Amino acid sequence: ITRCWLFTYQTPASEAQLLLPPHLELVTHQECAFWNVVVCRIKSMRPQPLPTWVGIQYWHVAYRLYVRFHPQSGPPLEGLHFLRSDCDSRLIATSGNLMTDFNFHTAAVAVQEHNDTISIQVKSPDMPAQAKLQPQVPPQLPAYSAFTSLEEAAAFLKYKPRGISVDEEGNANIVQIVRQEEAWQSSLVSVENAEWSFFNDKNVRPEICYQVNPISYQWNRGQIVPGAR
Known about the structure:
Blueprint lengths: L2 E10 H4 L8 E2 L5 E14 L10 E14 L7 E11 L2 H10 L4 E3 L1 E7 L2 E7 L5 E6 L15 H8 L4 E5 L5 E8 L6 E11 L8 E8 L4 E3 L3 E3 L4
Parallel strand pairs: 5-6
Antiparallel strand pairs: 1-3, 1-13, 2-4, 3-4, 4-5, 7-8, 8-9, 9-12, 10-11, 11-14, 11-15, 12-13
């Protein structure tokens, strides 16, 4: 991942739960559930162990909820449940829908930086979005936040590296993401404005946004994990 911004939003847990399949529960704080919207540039995406030069570059935008799954044995597993993804590669969208439950769509994504401002546009025919960031402006926690400080919000909203979906029988497909936690570096950034058509019919309010420095990621093959009965 060479560029990455993570926009987080709070939403009433009672409303967000309706968007989840059975056997998944929300990760909550102060009766709020949380959305994580990622905008990232991925470089050299390829099957292991192919060399980097055969990899694909593309932009990926995804709308995820923080969730928890209770397996048949072992402790609960936390991660992100994908409700929609947009990317500017038809190959990635097609193969992604064959191999994952991330609900890919194709859309042009444009990111421009000018005079200390970062502008993001997702040119989707059905779910367009735009955001403007001001990295040089000190971020502030909104007055309605579910957290008492920026540090508490950042720590809680750093997502666990798993994609989680479940089938009708309550078995989870867990996509484990391998990343070097010691290499994870992020900084909070101010959002001047952001509009996501995906949220038009949802009750959401911004929490924080953070920018992640370049970091290597490996998406492992999904594993089926039986759920607790």
